[in-house]
Write a structure and sequence with these properties.
One of its GO terms (cellular component) is membrane. Pfam families: JTB. There is one protein chain. The chain is α+β, with helices and mostly antiparallel strands. Among the domains are: about 60-110, Signal recognition particle alu RNA binding heterodimer, srp9/1; about 110-145. Helices cover about 65% and strands about 15% of the residues. It has helices at about 5-10, 20-55, 60, 75-80, 85-90, 110-155, and strands at about 65-75, 90-95, 100-105. It has a three-stranded antiparallel beta sheet. The chain is elongated. The protein starts with 6 loop residues before the first helix and ends with a helix.
């Protein structure tokens, strides 16, 4: 509770009440809450999926296996017939040692990883250039405002 002596400490600064600042706060906290509630919903869905997976787990999760065919891209017919192709678009053929069954397992190819890496690097470079330009423009604007203020002060003398 604020007393009269400290009343100024209790007030929200006027700079915080500008519409742009309020909109940015609303956007930020909206994204944070979306992230938190989205993660909670996803964990509930994953829990439900793991219950069904425990009943019909593939043999490569339960026993040792040997890779019969290295990780390769799914072709047209494979992507429709093999469910493992849907996750990453790449699949490897494995042979389970105990049950001697051939199954397909989703995998991540080095080519795909390299593509994702360069895509990320490009995005970071673009953001760096964008914010560098933004800083230069803002600095020029502030310099112009400061020189105008000095000029007005000199003219008023």
């Amino acid at each position: 509770m604020c007393t009269r002596a400290m009343e100024s400490d209790c007030r929200i600064p006027m700079a915080c009440l500008r519409p742009r600042i309020l909109a940015l706060h609303a956007l930020f906290w909206g994204l944070v809450s979306l992230r938190v509630f989205g993660a909670a919903l996803l964990s509930d869905e994953k829990a439900a999926v793991t219950v069904t997976k425990a009943v019909t787990a593939p043999c490569w999760q339960l026993e040792e296996f040997v890779v019969a065919k290295e990780c390769s891209a799914c072709e047209g017919l494979q992507s429709k017939t093999i469910p493992a192709c849907g996750q990453t678009g790449f699949v490897e053929k494995i042979n389970c040692t105990k049950s001697n069954r051939d199954e397909y397992k989703s995998c991540r190819s080095t080519k795909m990883e390299e593509h994702l890496f360069w895509k990320f690097e490009g995005a970071m470079l673009a953001l760096t250039v964008f914010f560098a330009i933004l800083v230069v423009v803002r600095q020029r604007s502030l310099d112009r405002q400061a020189s105008d203020k000095v000029r007005r002060q000199i003219e008023s003398i």
